[in-house]
## 1
Amino acid sequence: MRALVYHGPYEVAVEEVDDPRMEAPTDALVRITTTAICGSDLHMYEGRTDAEPGIVFGHENMGIVEDVGSGVTSVRAGDRVVLPFNVACGFCKNCRAGKTAFCLTVNPGFAGGAYGYVSMGPYRGGQAEYLRVPYADFNCVPLPAGTEHEEDFALLADIFPTGYHATELAGVRPGETVAVYGAGPVGLMAAYSALLKGASRVFVVDRVDNRLQLAEQIGATPINFTAGDPSEQIKDALSEDGVDRGIDAVGYQATAAEGEEQPAIVLNHLISTVRPTGSIGTVGLYLPSDPGAPNEHAAQGLLLLNIGRFFERGLRMGTGQADAKAYAHQLRDLIVAGRAKPSFVVSKQVPLSEAPDAYARFDNREPGYSKVLLQPGK
Ligand code: NAD
Ligand code: ZN
């Protein structure tokens, strides 16, 4: 089959690879109809996270079940499904508690599994024609048959539940004020989820105009951090010492604002942006690294968090990969009911063959490439 293969930083190509095959009676094979490029793929694409040449990316997948093992009972060939990016067993302590990003079975020695992601287990990605899905009864989320809402449903694999999870980690409640750092697809989904939950005011911080415009379009207030300290801009607009809840949807690849010698990690901005005793949800990625590691981004995440100021303001924070599977069913039902339309963030659909070009453009944050869906069947 054809798949997008990683060769090294900024180098990906569409090539023939071995077809996946079922390895356990609990597996399914899915023919991918839509798979998305994610900001998380850029950590490997840009070489911030080491990835082995030859791996196939892709953790935002949906498609049609092609075949199931003898132990699979809830889906069958022909069913349309979305595959939230957590590869999880469904029966360990964390899965039972809904912490599906931290499955204790699939990736021993590391919390949680994902398709096509280094460090998150041996699972090949779905930027390909076919994908093997382990524990298919748990990992396939059934969708209505047909092709309706394809763009909305594709976002259930990651960024919609991840944005929603950010609001859960931050504890957003109706009527509250929220600041989201990052207007990438994840930040926009966090802002959208906060508005769905009834937040009274949502600020979205970035410096990329077309992304800030999308934030404004859904009813959030855009804050361009090149125009001055984003925290001060938000406090001026509110006339208060900060928002109730803050969300980090940037992570350790933050770029520097005007006047900053090096990019202050977004978490330190959030510590000032959130009112004393408020709370923060961090879904932007910080990967562990030794302090001496040759990766300045990771070392920053490790060393520069202003814990003194965090303590002084009495804040709370939740972090981690999102338990995408824990929310996917409810968010699917909101889409079906016409109450949510996350696809406002989707700007492009291209055949898999154009994926290398789409990666380069998404990485450059080009207008029209805020969220790219790949269609392996076309
Ligand atoms: P993205 O790279 O498209 O978006 C990041 C945005 O942050 C960009 O628009 C960029 O301009 C902006 N930015 C950079 N520096 C900034 C700063 N100092 N202040 C404010 N904004 C700044 O990526 P994305 O797809 O939206 O993903 C965002 C982050 O979420 C990534 O780190 C990704 O790995 C992570 N992620 C986490 C999970 C999870 O489960 N926790 C899931 C998906 C993605
Ligand atoms: Zn993703």
## 2
Amino acid sequence: KDFDFGLVGLGVMGRNFILNVADNKFKAFGYDLDPEKVSALIEEGGNPDQVNATSDLSTFVGALSTPRKIMLLVPAGKIVDQVIESLLPHLDQGDIIIDGGNSFYTDTDRREAYLKDKGLHFFGSGVSGGAKGARRGPSIMPGGDKEAYEHVRPIFEAVAAKYKGEPCVAYLGPKSAGNYVKMVHNGIEYAMMQLTSEIYDLLKKSADLSNDELHEVFSSWNQGRLQSFLVEITSEIFLQKDDLTDARLVDMILDKAKQKGTGKWTSQNAMDLGIPVPTIDMAVSMREISALKDERVKADELYDRPAVQHIEKAELIELAEKALYFSFILSYAQGLNQLAEASKEYGYELNMSQIAKIWRAGCIIRAGLLADIADAFEANPGLTNLLLAPSFVKQVQETLPAVRETVAFAAKSGVPVPGLFSALSYFDAFTSSKLPLNLIQAQRDHFGSHTYERIDREGIFHTEWGA
Ligand code: 6PG
């Protein structure tokens, strides 16, 4: 009964996470219905007094010290509820269940209330960083029951990624704050991935960069202000040889992107909150368009495309670097704006600077840029939109001519860059003191007497148009 930490779900993430816990001198016990996963963990763990596992639930629960700390790393959805139900008869009052998966935030709120009634603690915690992150140090985003989190804190702080020695984990706020922040993290992840793929497309089609050259460009960018995990792995991807043919693997992969739903949830919820996140929306839409492969192939035959315009390699690389940097900033700006609003709406009490800080290492969207973002929110904790931070004005301004040129060039060449275009249009709209939506108000009042406000006097007005 002396194991410090229990983990349910010994898939890739679970196995890596539990080994990380054991490396950090906590005794960890795993549970999975699949005996093969159980024996694989025991074998890899080496010392059964440090890390052990079972397919028997009562052995699992019985091995843990109280209050038991049991983390679930199972697919989001019904399985989480099923695992909770199966654990219930074995648990004691005060035990703690942590959901480390990408659960939808309202599910977390429901589960917390349900388990509270039974005298159990439950909280949701985002975990980012993929398999390697889980093994060597993920970014961890816990929320919910603070008292329960305190019991788990030493373990999470030990296993989390470190940024200059600081653990990339922090208690984020009450209720489902942890899962919500992780959801938006994933929305930003979708946007950054879409933007990277657009820049790749342009470099390849308009300046004929080879995979070796693409590797060089992305790895040199990764040494500069674009330094980030996604740029780093992108540079590696171009070098990977295919096992089955002589080609590079990236050229043999079908252009249909899958998704598990977190990006879509981010967009859906942003709509509910009335917060525009068009670059995230566009990233979701592009995965959907990518899935329509058969129709795309037919449509491609029906329409002529403009001849792709060519441009000097060095010139396009310089434009593309600025365009990517600008649109990464805009992706964070939109996602963080959504978090600021969600914090008010759902009472999450989020500390935006702290969120940027725990994203600086371990997670998929980690990037050098996040240190500047953390500073901007620290300087002004009430900041809602990064574009309003004085420290960002100069760096955004400096990229703009290149962004406009890149978008115009792509449009003339028929290369789709909707993510980049959405970021630029969002920027142009957000920085316009006057938009043409006075006309929309006039139309609404014309056809439906929906009324309008005026620029020169207070009040609500209606006009009998054309009268
Ligand atoms: C992470 C990732 C991870 C997510 C994958 C796949 O932070 O480690 O966000 O949680 O599962 O990114 O997501 P999609 O299948 O939706 O692309």
## 3
Amino acid sequence: EAEQEIDFFFPQEQTLAVIKPDAMEGHKEEILGEISKGGFTISHLKETVLTREMAEEFYREHREKPFFSQLVDFMCRGPCLMLVLTKENAVEEWRAMMGPTDPEKARETAPQSLRARFAKDVLENTVHGSSDQQHAAEKIHFIFGDISADSDVLNEADVVSPPL
Ligand code: GDP
């Protein structure tokens, strides 16, 4: 009941965030701290090493791009942390926290962003975030399955869910 009232005034939105393999090597805790400071609620999280097949499916929109195989190699190189973030306007707000795809551009236009601070180059760029609500729903389903009936608040069962 109370939850419904909150949703009426501040409609919650979900987005999929990924801490990519480059950032898992040294910036995971700091990025999680930023997510929390940014006011996002983490409803689901899962650390996993993607298989090639999964990485290819995850980025299938880019399969014709010249960098596709590099991108798949990179995403399978080590563990990723997958997160469902909930907040009003979550898709746009998480994209803003990430900054532009290319960290050189990020350093010029969004120096506080995660990519400006932590990314090595346009490929190894620290974080992923859905570009719109449709993609968010699709990719959340791909990674976490059907979570539509779950609470927006993380519970222990989500944390210990088996790897993909
Ligand atoms: P994003 O939504 O900001 O992550 O950017 P895109 O959807 O355009 O690209 C997906 C991912 O592919 C990026 O996050 C990068 O890891 C990688 N990528 C994008 N553009 C390039 C590029 O020009 N060269 C290379 N090597 N990788 C790229």
